[in-house]
Amino acid sequence: MRSVTDVEALRALTDPLRQRIVDLLTASPATATEIARKLKLPRTRIYYHLDLLEGHELVRVVGHREAGGPAERIYASTADAFVVSPSIFAGRERDLNAVRAQLLEGAAHDLRTSHATGDEAVVVRAYRQFSEEQRRELAAAFAALLERIPDDPAGEMCAVAYAVFPCSPSGE
Predict the structure, then answer these.
(1) Which helix (H) or strand (E) holds 159?
(2) What is the helix (H) or strand (E) element at residue 31, kind and residue range?
(3) What are the φ/ψ torsions at residue 2 (nearest 5 degrees)?
(4) Nearest to residue 159, comparing CAs of 128, 115, 125?
(5) What Cα–Cα distance (Å) separates residue 118 from each residue in 121, 123, 124, 164?
(6) Strand partners, 3
(7) Cα-atom radius of gyration of the chain, to the nearest Å?
(8) What are phi and psi of 61, to 5 degrees?
(9) From the CB of residue 20, how many other CB atoms can be counted at a distance below 10 Å?
(10) Using one digit for the tens of pLDDT, what is the confidence trace for 41-52?
C-alpha cells in the first residue's frame, strides 16, 4: 500500500484511463502493447499515460521484452493499493471527498461493467454509529486484512473498494 501525498500524482491516478492502466499493472506486469490490446486503444496513447504515471512513481519499469523488433519496457504498479493522504487537501475537505467519491464511482463503474454474476460480487452497505477513533480503527482493520491475505496466482483478479465516512442514512 502506498500513500499519495501530492496533488499532481493524485490527478494522474484519478484519471479513469490511468486507473484502468494501474489496475492492469497491479494484476500483472505488462508492456504498452499488451495494455493497448487489453484496453483496445492505440499504443501511442498508452505510452503517454505510462510516462505520466511513471513520472509520479505510480508505475515503474521492471524489465524489457523483445518481440521481433525493438525491446519493449515491461511496466508494473509501484503498489497493490494507493491511499490518498488527507494532508493534500488541508483545509479543503470538500475537494478530498470529491476525489474519494470519484474513486468509489470508478469502482461502481467496474461493478456495472463486470462480467461477473451477482453471486460472485459481494456488496455490503451498512449504517453504524462510530466515533472518529472507531472509524479510523475500522479503516485500518480493512487495510490490515488486505495485507494479511496474500494474492493467489491461480485466483481471479478482484476489486476491493471500501469507505467509512460519517453520513445521515436519510441523505440529509
Answers:
(1) none
(2) strand 30-31
(3) -130, 140
(4) 115
(5) 6, 10, 13, 23
(6) 83
(7) 18
(8) -80, 130
(9) 18
(10) 999 999 999 999
What size, in residues, is the chain? 172
The residue whose grid cell reads 501511442 is: 44
Quote the pLDDT of residue 119: 59
C-alpha cell at 79: 503498489
**Reduced to 3 states, what is the DSSP secondary structure of residue 41?**
coil
Say which residue the cell 518481440 belongs to: 67
pLDDT tens across 85-140, in order? 878 877 777 777 777 787 788 778 777 777 655 557 777 878 888 998 998 899 88
The 3-class secondary structure across 47-92, one letter per residue, is: HHHHHHHHHCCCEEEEEEECCCCCCEEEEEECCCCEEECHHHHCCC
Residue indicated by cell numbers 480493512 = 142
| Secondary structure string (H, E, C) spanning 88-126 | HHCCCHHHHHHHHHHHHHHHHHHHHHCCCCCCCCCCCCC
3-state secondary structure of 141: helix
